[in-house]
Fold this sequence. Notes:
The structure is a single chain. By secondary structure, the protein is of the alpha+beta class. The chain has helices spanning about 1-15, 20-30, 35-50, 55-65, 130-140; strands at about 75, 80-85, 90-100, 110-115, 140-150, 150-155, 165-170, 170-180, 180, 185. Helices cover about 30% and strands about 30% of the residues. The chain is globular and about 50 Å long.
Amino acid sequence: MAEDSRIYELWLLCAMHRRETAPFVDAALARLGATHAEMEQAAERHRELTATFQGRLSAELELLSGARIEGSRTEHGNLVVDRHRFASWPEFEFEVEYDPAGHGWFPERAEFVRAPGSATPAGPPVPWAWSRDETLARYEVLREIDHWYPYHSFAVRDGEGEYLFVSFSCGLLQEVAPLEVLDGEPIERPRNGGAPSGGS
Length: 200
């Protein structure tokens, strides 16, 4: 089970691996004693195990079982919430909300939340140190830009009136960057890395 949770943790790292987060991912891999090749192999193994819609939820839960915090399960109506701990994110816990009867192909929710006893850092939001809810509470949210699991991004405005792009993976902040402005409106970044599109 510990090996299964290692696969899941390395998959999470692979999902977060991009130019902006490379130093964080590299540091996490070093702490785990893992290589980029092992991370990519784990991501491929995760894809194989979760390839079918019908068995995806059970496969996800099996991979997560070794990281589950004992006694952390809570119930929300007909759903349950399990909390998990990963060495790469000691200030956070990974919450997974799902139907224990097996209805549905995906968890209802799977995201990082601040761990009990861990405080939101002082200063402006920085990647891997702030959750989505903590970050969005700090800014004026103008609109959602993209949302496809595990990614989520928004156009926001800070207290100085600067337009910013903020992106998240599994509810954890990944990037904060300025947005260009055209005719007083921020120009959105598309998720595919192509040319920006004008704001609506």
